[in-house]
Amino acid sequence: METRRVTSFDGTEIAYRVTRPPFEGAKTVILVNGLGGPYLAWRGQIEYLSDQYRFITWDYRGMYASQRPSPDVPGAYAVANHVRDLEVVLAAEGVRHGALMGWSMGVQVALEAFRRLPGFARNLVLLNGTSHRPLETLPQLGRLVPSLVDLATRAHAVASQVTRRAIRQPDAATWLRRMGMLETTLDGEVLAELMQPMGELDVEAFFRNLRALGAHDAEDVLEQIDVPTLLITGDRDTFAPRALAQAMARRIPMAEVLVVRGGTHYTAVEFPELVSLRIERFFADHGF
What we know:
Residues 28-270 form the AB hydrolase-1 domain. The protein contains eleven helices and eight strands. With 288 residues, it is α/β, with parallel strands linked by helices.
């Protein structure tokens, strides 16, 4: 993917990535990232579908290649502002319609985009996420976030160094698997590629985004969704259990669900062929 840059509504420089259209008139799929997941997490879907669709994704403010906002205040990381960043990217690329495909935090951002950009989405693909306040599915983590934000603010440089060292440790993948975040069969080279940029995360910006995410609620959007929607989840996802996807599907008028046996929170990375085939069929069935 080619990296490009654009200045958002408040002066924040946003980095985004694009693939070339495979042919004139090819439709666009907007990939809406997870909070800690780099755009490389979409590799399987991009490689499989890039001969049919053009892909665009962007780094959230403060994450990876995008700048932190100025003034750097908690409210600047609101989910609504991520959608405003997306609006600027779409304007720069001249995209008026497309599919919204969100993973994890990206489900919240995609639902907010559906709310704020009426008529843009021709369909939705929502992977391993929830419409309700995400941290309430893990209340222990939700209670810790304010303290972690304060700690990262006071010891920003140290926290970033500790994170980099922890992710580079050989046992890091083992612990992620034990926590249920990764399937044991995930290819080691793929995992290493994903974890390398995660070691460069700005820890303070990460937790500011996490706190803003915890305050976001898109429950009221579900019944308003009037486009075909595919929800994908794993039966071993401890962060966004499959029951959340099934409950969302009951409230979305044109919803379909795929539950991947053995899938964790990284289902699309662990089972790229299965997930990509299902997305391809979903797009074909609904004329996208």
